[in-house]
Amino acid sequence: MGDLAVGRRGMVRRRVPQQSEGRQAGACPATMPIVFVYGTLKRGDCRHRYMAGSRFLELATTERGYRLFDMGEYPAMVEDPDGGAIEGELFEVSDGTLEVLDEVEGVADELYARRAVRLEGDRSSLGAEAYLYLGSVAGKRELVGRWLVRGS
Question: Which residues form the domain of 58?
Fold first, then answer.
């Protein structure tokens, strides 16, 4: 994992070599944010189109401490010390895609917040972020470990 660097907000990002790298002394290499997706942004689901241009890295699972709820058209992942592990996918995304995802997920409206997520195994060092639901899940059906892709 020698291709990782610390990015803004202390998030660990995967280093992306630049064409000019090595030619300019002291040049700062660009890095790409890593996002853990667990619902409609997953491959094959209805909002995956917003991941266009992103690079799928691998399947991943959170550490225990999360719960997943069916909100009807989309899932909601929340932190809960008594929760379990959630299955999802890791992607490298551009800063531009991250801005789009923040809009799609309703970050400005405080529907979701993009926060660091704890992943199982050596993936935890990636510093991935996920969208955690901020609303009420009272009365919603809890899903066990994963959201099943429903298609577009």
Answer: 4-143
